Amino acid sequence: MSEVSKRVVITGINLITALGLDLEKSWENLVAGRSGTKKITLFDTSDHATKIAAELPPEFDDYAKNYCKKYLAKQMARSTKMCFVCTKEAVRNSNIDFGKFDKSRCGVIFGLVGTGYSSQDILKDSKNLIIKTMSNAVSAWVSIEYKLEGPSYTVSTACSSAAYAIANGYDLIKLNKCDLVIVGGGSSGVNPDEIRGFNDLFALSTRNDEPEKASRPFSIDRDGFVMGEGAGILILESEESARSRGAEIHAEMLGYALTTEAYNIISPQKDGVGMARTMELALKNAGVRKEEVDYINAHGTSTGLNDKYETMAVKRVFGELAYKVPISSVKSMIGHTISAAGGVEAIITIMSMKNNIITPTINYNPDPELDLDYVPDKAREKKISTAISNSFAFGGHNACLVFRKYK
Question: Considering the entire predicted model, what is its pTM?
C-alpha cells in the first residue's frame, strides 16, 4: 500500500447537547449564550451534594426513535444511543453513499469512558447487561449499520477520549490506510454513580440554587465543573475522496498532538507545563506558526487548577500574543461532556471558523490572576482561518487538535 501523505478534511459534523438535539439548534443556542444547566431529572438527587447538570432535552428518547430501531434501542445504553443517533444524522447530512466506497477502507473510531449504564439502570432492567456495558459497542453498531469493514474500535482516555479518536482517524487517512473514518465520542455521566464519584473528588459545582450560572470557567468564583451529556460526531475524509464525490468540506484538519504528563492521576502538571508542551507540539506537527492562530477553544472546565494552568500554558506558548488570541469555553453553556468533549468542542471550533463567530464564555466574573481574552458573556464576530481545540484529561492524557478553513 502506498504511504502517500493525504490531506484530511471534514465532510460531516453533528452535535447532540443540552442545548439541542442537532447541530443547528445547538449552535444557535451556543451563539446566543444560553445555558443548558438545570436541576437533574434523570434520578433522585436528595442524597447528592450536586443536584444540577446539563442533561439532554427531555425529548431525546422520542427523537432517537427516528434513527434507532426498537430492538437496537433495547440493547443500547444511553451513551451508545447518543453516539449512534448523532452518527446517523451526520452521515445523512454529508450525503454519503457507502455503496460507492471501498468499505474495507472506511473506519469507525469513538471515544468513550463508559456507556452510561449505571447501577440505577441495572436495578431497573439488567437484560443485555454485557452489550450495554461494552464501550466498544457503539463502534461496532455503526460499523454494522453501514457494513464498514475497516478499523473499528473505541478509545478511552477520560476527558480527551474523543480528541484521541479524532487523532487516530486522522492518521489512518493521512497515511492512506483509509478513505473515510467516522470519529467522535459520547457521554452520559448524569447518573447517581458518576455524580457521587465526582462529588467525592470535590470536582463538581454545588451551586444548586443557580443552575444556569453554575459553570463559570476562568472566573474567580468558579467552584467546579457541571456534568454534561451529549455526543459530537465528525466524518473525516481524504481530500481526494471528498472532491471526487462533490462533498461539502467544512474544514481541514492540519494536525494534532497527543502527550502524557506522567505526573498525577487527577491533577494537571504544575504551571501548565504539560498543556503548553501539547499545544507547542500540535502547532509544530501541523506546520502552523503561533502568529497564525486566530482562536483557542479551551478545555476550560471551571475548576481551580485547570483554568489557572491552561491560562499559564497559553502564555507559555504564545508569549505576548496570548493577550491577542480570543479563548472561550463552551463548557460554560453545555457543561463538561467528558469523553464526548473533544468531539463536541472540535465541531464548535469548526463552526466558529465557518461562521466567523466565537461562542462566548458565559457567567464570567474576572479573576485578576487569569487575565486573557475569554470572550465573556456574548458571542463575537471575528474572521477565523486557523484554530486549535484543547482537551486535557485525568491521567494526564492531553490532546490538541489543529483546524484550518479549507482552501
Answer: 0.97
